[in-house]
From TrEMBL:
InterPro entries named among the record's database cross-references: Cyclic_Pdiesterase, Phosphoesterase_HXTX, RNA_CPDase
Top-level enzyme category: hydrolase
Gene name for this UniProt entry: thpR
Record organism: Halomonas pelophila
EC number assigned by the record: 3.1.4.58
Name this protein carries in UniProt: RNA 2',3'-cyclic phosphodiesterase
Family: Belongs to the 2H phosphoesterase superfamily. ThpR family.
Amino acid sequence: MRLFLALMPPPALRRRLGELAEWAHARCGGRRVPDDSLHLTLAFIGEVSEEKAEGLSTWVEGLDVPGGEWRLDGWGAFRRPGILWVGSQTPDRAMVNLQASLWRDLERQGFTGRPSRFIPHVTLLRRARRLESDGLPLPDLVWPYRQVALLRSFTEQDGARYQTLARSPAP
């Protein structure tokens, strides 16, 4: 099964992100990420056996996640896959530290694949025809986070769908 660690937005923020996705889709085309799939990936783990997934679930359920707030105040794009996203104009030190800490723990468990660069973002569009954010409303959102989720990704004809396997304890 294909797994990753993520932050899931609270409902009100998910709705606001969905509104931004609608604006972006109207302007840029492509495939809009459904509201229930909006997230911030902290660590893509990849294909994992069921046994290892159970171990990861137990680990996540015992994580002590330092809370923080992430400010989303800018648009960005990854040109090659045609992804339009929202994120921060300046790095969020607490978020970067959380991601690095999770990867250190994953590596101790034998997982590999830590990216050389971490760009916190929420993907709103895939395969966008245009990647210009000119004319789109500037995001000004705050995402309070306190919990990490272990998600399983299913690739379907109309895109990826996610199933939550475990969550770190709520504060």
